[in-house]
Amino acid sequence: MKRRLYIELENCIGCRACLAACTQCGGHEQRNRNYVYDINPFVDTQTMPLMCLHCEDPPCARSCPAQAIQIHESGAVLSAMAEKCIGCQNCTIACPYGIPKFDEEQNLMYKCDLCIDRTQYDIPPMCASVCPSNTLQWLTEEEIENKQRRHDLDNGKWVASMPPLENETNVKINLPGILQGTEKLF
């Protein structure tokens, strides 16, 4: 049964446990590949995790002239393969979400790989496994549809999974509360 990462933004308490767990994930070389964004630090304490949405047709992979970015059969968009990456940074520029980062020291792009060493065996990614507020969840399609139905109020204020900027993604985001009567985040 296919599972996806589901992000329920209004639950985020800014604890950054997801960042610490990402750093500890095998193969991440002690670098976290996710971020916690302070939405408007001068107004409130609302935070949100920011991570790769694993687009089904990822612009980062499309823009790579060396074909260093591969897509796993599960849909996870992997970090650039070290032996192929030429350090051109096209992927960083192409991503509409600003996710891939470039390591100048290693001349290599890196980003969330959805803990493919875990998720290919249906083990939740490290970030979701440690999230104390259920902001990050590892859910089946049916579980995600049930959550989205609860939030689809059709009043123009509550949104469940915004239309993606680029194309369909393998990570779903729930935004109710944060956007209620206010401006969009993206």
TrEMBL record:
The family database entries (Gene3D superfamilies) matched by this protein are listed as:
3.30.70.20
Which residues span the membrane?
none
Under the heading Pfam families, the entry gives: Fer4_11 (PF13247)
Keyword terms, alphabetized = 4Fe-4S, Iron, Iron-sulfur, Metal-binding
Which SUPFAM superfamilies does the UniProt record give? Answer: 4Fe-4S ferredoxins
Query: For this protein, what is any one GO molecular function term?
Result: 4 iron, 4 sulfur cluster binding
Which domain of life does the UniProt lineage start with? Bacteria
Question: What InterPro entries does this protein's entry cite?
Answer: 4Fe4S_Fe-S-bd, 4Fe4S_Fe_S_CS, ET_IronSulfur_Cluster-Binding
Instruction: Using the record's annotation, list all stretches that form the 4Fe-4S ferredoxin-type domain.
Output: 3-33, 39-74, 76-105
State the PANTHER family in the record. PROTEIN NRFC (PTHR43177), PROTEIN NRFC HOMOLOG (PTHR43177:SF3)
Question: What is the protein's given name?
Answer: 4Fe-4S binding protein
